[in-house]
Amino acid sequence: MRIRPVLVFDGDCGFCTDSVRLIERVVRPRCETVPWQRADLAALGVTPERARHEALWVTPTGRVYGGAQAVAKLLLSAGGAWTLAGAFLTLPVVRGAAHAAYRLVADNRQRLPGGPAGCALPADRTRRT
């Protein structure tokens, strides 16, 4: 059994990797961080499809939170003022907006700084102008 939670993220995405490194330095969550490409997903109870779709927070007991709720759990783990931000994201009236904001960023990460071609959506899912 793991002792610490694990944050699983997309290691092929520059934006995701840069974000996690910044979070490690500034927020200092109490967790391990691992790119899904290097993680033992089966041991974490996570499918590759889900890991590609969103960041994941896996508790030591095996409970998995994804997307905005993974971010909330990460903030809660950091303590201090970060706990308030994490708790805010878990409020029922905020959850929907947090999820929408997470999806907006995740679905457009190829357009964000550090989001190289590896983050780009397949040609059949990109908008043509």
Describe this protein with a few key phrases.
129 residues; alpha+beta; 4-stranded mixed beta sheet; 4 strands; 47% helix; globular; disordered C terminus; DCC1-like
Distance between the termini: 50 Å
Q: H/E element string?
A: EHEHHEEHHH
**Radius of gyration from CA coordinates:** 15 Å
Strand order of the largest sheet: 2-1-3-4
Number of domains: 1
Determine the strand fraction and express it as a percent band.
5-15%
Count of helical stretches: 6
Structural class: alpha+beta
Mean pLDDT across residues: 88
Indicate the overall shape: globular
Helix proportion: 40-55%
> Major sheet: size, sense and barrel closure?
4 strands, mixed
Strand count? 4
Which residue ranges are poorly predicted, with pLDDT under 50 across at least 5 consecutive positions? 120-129
Pfam family, one: DCC1-like
Protein name: DUF393 domain-containing protein
Short structural description:
With 129 residues, this protein is α+β, with helices and mostly antiparallel strands. It has 6 helices and 4 strands; from the N terminus they run βαβααββααα.
Structure description:
There is one protein chain. This protein has 129 residues and is of the alpha+beta class. It has one domain. Helices cover 47% and strands 11% of the residues. It is built from 6 helices and 4 strands, in the order E-H-E-H-H-E-E-H-H-H. A 4-stranded mixed beta sheet has the order 2-1-3-4. Helix 4 packs antiparallel against helix 5. 29% of the residues are buried.
